[in-house]
């Protein structure tokens, strides 16, 4: 006999606990289960006390507590744990019940699980959940995909708990993304863009601090101002806040006490790897992943810092003059960095949507790219003002080849271009690493050129491996015996 809970959630780490509280706050009765049942009791006796919850100590009890069609969501570590829970759930399910995976799951696993679960007569949803702990509690961005027949049964609940945007704060950041693994793929691209955004902001920080000489208090003011304009976003906002926090033990700014070694959970790497599989140049997320990798080589970097030389101002009069000029006109330098950051951010999103387009075609998902932008406008980590512009672009041109070609972004890139180039040049002259800035500029310059040196690359491949080539003046595929035709080198 089914119970009367509207929703069930497995996994009571902070994200799961907060999401369960969010669901209950919207008027739904929630069943909860955790492998470590002490966590169930702690929630029921703590934050959920007096609320519409049912705590369960077994999978069977958990399933039977929910009304049919059951809506059972997992928020557990991606990988084998998800398959194990599905295996534990299925003996107690009935046809039409819905299993939901809200973890950071690789899309290919969701493709497989959707087919396997549907073959047993149940529905499966793989949904991206973005917004961190606060978003889970107050309203995340949700990116559901999987069994389309399940969407009408969860739509009202999902959209009720999601973040809201729009003039009347009534547009939910949640809608159906597509079949099978589409939802988790869109979430992965979101995370890849997040990697790029964070690295770009860090490079802007280093430029302003090390070249511009700004203090943390001044950095707070700069990021506060940036958050009122084109760069307005959650990541700019929290970066501003970070510069205001003092270390309680020393009264110094806490950010200066944090070891410069970045962690990663892998979703940025997934996007980069899948971009390579698709043959699309998602270069900025790849650069951001590698930047985290070199940050982890802290001990090696410390050793190298006392051995490898950088540019010496005294030996280079032009460099010394450039440094003096930058130091003397701080406002111009800040604007240079801002424009470079904005242009790089446009490139980052452009690459993300190019990859989504390629994946949608590869997997027959029929993604709505404007809708994807809408899902990211609130609740999630990359929420930003200019996502409205991205939605407008794809609403106006659903088959837009690249965001940079849309008039708004084309004009923005043209306006930012002089500053964009200047900041990369200045960083190069001064020996300040800006891998994401420079990668973004290289992509822009590569994309806008009608001819690249790949003709020479094809000649090289044909020379050493007979890989053939095409010509600009004839149809067909050609091979040349380069050794026979080459000019003989002089001895």
Write structural notes for this entry.
The protein has 491 residues and is α/β, with parallel strands linked by helices. The chain folds into three domains: 7-180, NAD(P)-binding Rossmann-like Domain (Rossmann fold, 3-Layer(aba) Sandwich); 187-447, N-(1-d-carboxylethyl)-l-norvaline Dehydrogenase, domain 2; 459-485, Single alpha-helices involved in coiled-coils or other helix-helix interfaces, CATH 1.20.5. Helix content is 54%, strand content 8%. The chain has helices at 14-25, 37-45, 59-64, 80-89, 107-119, 132-138, 151-161, 182-211, 216-226, 234-242, 267-278, 283-295, 298-305, 317-328, 330-363, 369-375, 387-396, 407-430, 435-447, 454-465, 482-485, and strands at residues 7-10, 30-33, 53-56, 71-74, 98-101, 123-130, 141-146, 164-165, 171-172, 178-179. Pathway: Carbohydrate degradation; pentose phosphate pathway; D-ribulose 5-phosphate from D-glucose 6-phosphate (oxidative stage): step 3/3. It catalyses: 6-phospho-D-gluconate + NADP(+) = D-ribulose 5-phosphate + CO2 + NADPH. Keywords: Gluconate utilization, NADP, Oxidoreductase, Pentose shunt. Pfam families: 6PGD, NAD_binding_2.
Keywords summarizing the entry:
491 residues, alpha/beta, N-(1-d-carboxylethyl)-l-norvaline Dehydrogenase, domain 2, Single alpha-helices involved in coiled-coils or other helix-helix interfaces, eight-stranded mixed β-sheet, 21 helices
């Amino acid at each position: 006999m089914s119970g009367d809970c509207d929703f069930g959630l497995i996994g009571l780490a902070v994200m799961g606990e907060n999401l369960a509280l969010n669901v209950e706050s919207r008027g739904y009765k929630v069943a909860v289960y955790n492998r470590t049942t002490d966590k169930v009791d702690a929630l029921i006796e703590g934050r959920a006390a007096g609320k519409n919850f049912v705590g369960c100590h077994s999978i069977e009890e958990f399933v039977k507590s929910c009304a049919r069609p059951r809506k059972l969501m997992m928020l557990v570590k991606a990988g084998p744990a998800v398959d194990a829970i599905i295996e534990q759930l299925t003996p107690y399910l009935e046809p039409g019940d819905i299993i939901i995976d809200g973890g950071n799951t690789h899309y290919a696993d969701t493709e497989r699980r959707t087919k396997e679960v549907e073959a047993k007569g149940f529905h499966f949803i793989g949904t991206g959940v973005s917004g961190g702990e606060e978003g889970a509690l107050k309203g995340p961005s949700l990116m559901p995909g999987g069994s389309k027949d399940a969407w009408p049964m969860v739509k009202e609940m999902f959209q009720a708990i999601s973040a809201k945007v729009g003039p009347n704060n009534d547009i939910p950041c949640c809608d159906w993304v597509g079949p099978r693994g589409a939802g988790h793929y869109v979430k992965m691209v979101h995370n890849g863009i997040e990697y790029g955004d964070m690295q770009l902001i860090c490079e802007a920080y280093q430029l302003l601090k090390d070249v511009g000489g700004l203090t943390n208090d001044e950095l707070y003011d700069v990021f506060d101002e940036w958050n009122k304009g084109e760069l307005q976003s959650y990541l700019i906002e929290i970066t501003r806040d970070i510069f205001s926090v003092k270390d309680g033990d020393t009264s110094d700014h806490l950010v200066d006490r944090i070891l410069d070694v970045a962690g990663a959970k892998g979703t940025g790497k997934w996007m980069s790897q899948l971009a390579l599989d698709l043959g699309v140049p998602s270069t900025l997320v790849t650069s951001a992943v590698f930047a985290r990798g070199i940050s982890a080589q802290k001990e090696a970097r410390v050793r190298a810092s006392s051995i490898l030389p950088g540019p010496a101002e005294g030996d280079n009069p032009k460099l010394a003059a450039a440094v003096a000029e930058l130091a003397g006109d701080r406002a111009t330098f800040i604007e240079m960095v801002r424009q470079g950051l904005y242009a790089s951010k446009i490139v980052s999103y452009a690459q993300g949507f190019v990859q989504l387009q390629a994946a949608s075609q590869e997997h027959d998902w029929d993604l709505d790219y404007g809708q994807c932008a809408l899902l990211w406008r609130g609740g999630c980590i990359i929420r930003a003002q200019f996502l409205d512009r991205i939605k407008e672009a794809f609403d106006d041109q659903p088959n837009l080849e690249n965001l940079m070609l849309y008039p708004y972004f084309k004009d923005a890139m043209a306006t930012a271009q002089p500053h964009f180039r200047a900041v990369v040049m200045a960083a190069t002259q001064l020996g300040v690493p800006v891998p994401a800035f420079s990668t973004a500029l290289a992509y822009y310059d590569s994309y806008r050129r009608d001819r690249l040196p790949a003709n020479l690359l094809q000649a090289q491949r044909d020379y050493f491996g007979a890989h053939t080539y095409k010509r600009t003046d004839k149809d067909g595929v050609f091979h040349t015996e380069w050794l026979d035709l080459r000019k003989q080198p002089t001895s």
